[in-house]
């Protein structure tokens, strides 16, 4: 007899998975992963938007490094205070 890792109840042969867990017991984990993936996709979208705001990529820098340098340079200027 194989028991579910989540609820401890028996898993019938035809529905056996590796690791042993009921599909219904797995759903909360799947939903959590989907929410995390959605969050990462949104973050990736916003990050890409920032990176592609850099139109002049410098030869020895990645687009990320150029964007970061622009932000740091701009933020460090005293005239930036509104
Ligand atoms: Zn279960």
Helix-strand blueprint:
Layout: E1 2-3, E2 10-11, H1 23-51, H2 63-76
Antiparallel strand pairs: 1-2
The structure holds zinc ion.
Describe the structure.
It is a single chain. The protein is mainly alpha-helical and 82 residues long. It has a domain at 23-76. Helix content is 52%, strand content 5%. The protein has 2 helices and 2 strands; from the N terminus they run ββαα. Strands 1-2 form a two-stranded antiparallel ribbon. A hairpin with a 6-residue loop joins strand 1 and strand 2 (10-11). It is rod-shaped. The termini are far apart. Residues 4, 6-7, 9, 21-22, 25 line the site of zinc ion. Zinc ion binds at residues 4, 6-7, 9, 21-22, 25.
Name its key features.
82 residues, mainly alpha, two-stranded antiparallel sheet, 2 helices, 2 strands, binds zinc ion
Instruction: List the bound ligands.
Output: zinc ion
Uncertain regions spanning at least 5 consecutive residues: none
| Rounded radius of gyration (Å) | 24 Å
Strand order of the largest sheet: 1-2
Biggest pleated sheet: 2 strands, antiparallel
Helix content: 40-55%
Tally the helices.
2
Order of helices and strands: EEHH
Helix vs. strand class: mainly alpha
Overall 3D form: rod-shaped
For the secondary structure, the number of strands is 2
Distance between the termini: 69 Å
Mean pLDDT: 89
Strand content: under 5%
Explain briefly what this protein structure is.
The protein is 52% helix and 5% strand. By secondary structure, the chain is mostly helical.
């Amino acid at each position: 007899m194989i028991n579910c890792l989540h609820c401890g109840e028996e898993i019938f042969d035809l529905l056996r998975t590796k690791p042993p867990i009921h599909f219904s017991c797995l759903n909360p984990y799947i939903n959590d992963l989907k929410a995390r993936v959605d969050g990462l996709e949104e973050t990736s979208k916003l990050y890409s938007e920032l990176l592609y705001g850099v139109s002049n990529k410098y030869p020895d820098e990645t687009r990320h490094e150029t964007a970061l340098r622009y932000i740091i340079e701009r933020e460090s200027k005293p005239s930036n205070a509104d």
